[in-house]
Each structure stands twice: as C-alpha cells, then as structure tokens.
Amino acid sequence: MSNSNENKKHIAVFPFPFSSHLLPLLTLTINLAHESPNSHFSFISTQKTNQTLFSKTNIPKNIKHYNVSDGIPKGDELLPGSEVTFYLQTGPENFQNGIDLAVAESKKPITCIIADAFVTPTFDVAKTLNVPWIPVWIPMSCSLSVHFHGDIIRAHCSVNDVNRTLDFLPGLSVLRVEDLPHDILMTGTEKENVLTRALDSLSKILPEAKTVVVSFFEELDLPLFVEDIRTKLKSMLYVPLFNLKPKTTPQNEIDESGCISFLEVQKAKSLQVVYVSFGTTVVEPPEHEIVALAEALEEYGFPFIWSLKENLRNLLPNGFVERTSTRGKVLGWVPQSRILGHGSIGAFVSQGGCNSMLEGISNGVPMIFRPYFADQGINARLAVDVWEVGVIIEGRVFSKNGLLKSLDLILVQQEGKRFRENALKMKKILEEANGPKGRATHDFKKLVELVSSS
User: What is the residue range of the signal peptide feature (predicted)?
Assistant: First the structure.
C-alpha cells in the first residue's frame, strides 16, 4: 500500500480530547502510520491528553505529538462541560499554532488534515493551507442525518413530542424524538453553545470534505440513511475504530481485578452474570438511580460485576457491598473486553455508548440500555427496534422495579432467549463485516490511498 510519494506526506491529526472520542483518533492514526510507514503524522492535542496517551501506548516512530492550548483560563473553577467550550473557543489560530510547531520540527509542510468532526475550526485551517480536510465521525453514523436535517426536525417536532417518530427523514422512521441528542431541538439563545454551534455547522462544511470517515459498519447501517447521506457528501468511508476482536489472554497474565476468576466460578455453577458499566460517559447517574440499581441487583440474586467510578461508591446503600460480596464485585476499573467475551455474561447494563454497545453485540450479549445524552438514545433504539438484542429501561430511568423487570425478561423469560439468539446473529455479521472481505477493509485501503496521494 505504500506510495513512492509518501516521503513527502505530512498529515496533521486533531482529536476531540474528551470522553470516548480521543482513543479512536489515535487508533486511526496508528493504523495509518503502519500502512504508510514513510508518511509523517503529527498528532496535535492538549498537553494533558498527549501526556496520557503517549506515555502508555506503543507509538510508531512516524507519529509525533504536539501540544496546543486547552484554552482554560488559569485559576478559573471549571464547571461541568466547560473544558469543551474553552477548547473549541481557541479557534483556528490555536490549531494553526500546533501545525506551525509540527512543520518547524519536521521541515515538511502539511499535506492533509484529519480531524474529529467535532473540531470544526480545523476546516478553516485546511482551507487556509489549501489541503484536503478529512473529518472523522465517531458517534453512531445515522446521527449525522439528524444534524443535517436539524431545521426540518425543529419544524416538525418539539421537546414534548417524545413519542413522535422521525418518519419524515430518509431511513430514520425507527427513531423517536426522545432518542435525539438534546441540542437538536434547541432554538434561539439556547443554541448559544460553542459545541452546539459547531455541530449545527456540519451540514454546511462536511459536504466540502475530501471524504467523511464514519466509525461504523455499512453492513449494520440503515440502507435508506446511507443512500440519503451519500447524496450530501463527496465521499463517505466506513472505517470502524472499535477494538472488537476478542483479547487473547496469556495463561500467566495476572487477573488484577479478580473478575476473570470470579466469572470462572460462576461458569462452573452454570450461573449467568449481570455486567453493569456506564463507560466513559461524562454524565454521571444521579444518586437515586445508583440506589435503585443497587437495590435491584441485591434483590434479584444473580451474580454481578459493576464497574462504578470511585467517586460514586459513596452513593451506594449502606452495607450493599458487604451484603452482596459473595456474589458481586463493585470495582472502579474492570477489563471490559475480557468480561464481555466470557461465556458467563448473561446481560450487559449500559448507557448505550456506541463502543460499549458494539462490544456487547460482538460478544453475543443481550443488553439493557439507560441512555443519558448525545447519540446514546439513537444507539439504544437501533439495538432494541432494529437489531432486537435488548431493551430500553422502563421510563428511560433506573428504578428498582424497572430494572428487575428488564433483568427477568432477559435472563429468565423466553424473550431473553430470542435476544441472545439475535445477538449471536449480529456477532456473526460483525465478524464478517470486520473481516478481509468486509466494507471496512476496502474503505480503509481507500483512506490510505487518499492520505498517501493528497
């Protein structure tokens, strides 16, 4: 795949350094660097994220990282989510500074910019430099259509039309208003948010991109959506940036969390384990939902593993951890891919993040969703009504009775067997989609060619 012109290529990569967006861009950069060993990649982000990523990851030699300002005023007390605002407000000048650093050190001009689509100021930088701009869409692919058709949605729907379906949008009739990211229905002064304005601009700037990389599988996508969105873009490539391949574990690898040995004990007893995790979501569950979840797990009696941030453990009911210690584990960090790949997991309780959802499906595990924000409602709706691999929690809020009902449905009732069968079918589709004959392999090769020839 290498190209004789590669030694002239210098690609600047701009991640969105928040939540679950960061690692996919680094994964893409590493994969491209391996396939284009003579090209130079400059990964431009904040000092904090670069220190975290590049101190732990095995990085190819043709990737260098450079720091830009996070925009946070010194001494300011940060409000939740304000880091995003400060970062995006730094604008094109800040990102151009990162490019200037990279060019000065490498002595090679930038030939292409790859950026998380949320970092919209990079579009202006690419125009100024007259180089191709390749945005990467990390959320669920069909949520792109929601941003393209925002005005139409606002004309047809209000925040109170929770059960109204989007049957007026190509391929999205399965979605409801309650599934949408909250910013889509914002109007007037409510939209005076830097990220909201950035997402609102996507319908204008994405059509000018060299190609739009979507981190998903065409084989799973909604055909009418794909047909519609392709008419709006110059090009769209499916390059999933999820690690869905089962992790092979050396026999001598230490099980630091104790999760695998715990699962082996449950497997020997032929017991199904409930796995609970809210991923890297920036929206933390409220106290009453944490309590309700704990009460349901305690009453139901099935063994469980709960990945719960340390700062939330004090919200658990008094004595919960001690009373459930023989059949449950509550930990701040767990090896999720290994847990979901273990045959004893009977249900996965999740917020519905795209990565977590696909990781569950790729292991054939039925799911219970409690979506909080962003594309999580869309993801959950697709999993429940299109792929039929789980349920959305009753009322979309954790309650003791609601979770008990969902657990019973999946782990005991006949319906749960159907969910597992569908999840296993989806697992097979994902394996083929992620294989050498899948669209992803074809599109990644095309992306390498684009980057190498720009």
Answer: none
Query: What is the model's pTM?
Result: 0.91
Clarify whether 21 is annotated catalytic: yes
pLDDT one-digit tens code per residue, 355-391 = 899 899 989 999 999 999 889 999 999 999 999 999 9
Task: Give the chain's domains with CATH numbers.
Answer: 6-244+435-453 (3.40.50.2000), 259-432 (3.40.50.2000)
CA distances from 201 to 25, 85, 154, 195, 242 (A): 21, 16, 16, 10, 26
- Residue 167 among the catalytic residues: no
User: Which residue among 10, 21, 147, 149 is the active-site one?
Assistant: 21
**Which pLDDT tens digit goes with each residue over 223-280?**
999 999 999 999 999 999 976 554 444 455 678 889 999 999 998 888 899 999 987 6
pLDDT digits (tens, 9 = 90+) for 308-341: 998 899 999 999 999 999 999 999 989 998 999 9
